[in-house]
Amino acid sequence: xxxxxxxxxxxxxxxxxxxxxxxxxxxxxxxxxxxxxxxxxxxxxxxxxxxxxxxxxxxxxxxxxxxxxxxxxxxxxxxxxxxxxxxxxxxxxxxxxxxxxxxxxxxxxxxxxxxxxxxxxxxxxxxxxxxxxxxxxxxxxxxxxxxxxxxxxxxxxxxxxxxxxxxxxxxxxxxxxxxxxxxxxxxxxxxxx
Length: 193
Hints:
Arc Repressor Mutant, subunit A, Tetracycline Repressor, domain 2, mainly alpha, 2 domains
């Protein structure tokens, strides 16, 4: 085998391509190694088997998917506007992926079933982003909430239906998202504002 300089990013790129080609059930570590022209043992220096590698692919995919959400957190907007934009982005980012990259989205759905730790970490990240904006809103006097963590969980749960693939084809999807998000924001608002 030819010597190649390996790192996690190179392996993840190769694994993603192999998963795209064969699907997450049929693809294996040997396929990834073959595509990199290394022995499969070389990959075990970086990942402890197929599950570990597939989890890393899923985690990276989710992280890349939510780059726009991280940008929203950095915006110089009042919390109510920022929360509306964040929740709208959460709802639309997976739908856009399903439309623009259906093969990887389908693979993500299959991978996600076996990657509960990765999915839970992603959900926790979403809740933390919502909480950050709620805390900002409390500081600004826009939101009135005694328990920002619990409020963030409730907001996440109330909008999570829009990240499910079953909602992607709903003709009233955009209107429904806006209605739910506006209702949630009104519920968080300081009654004195």
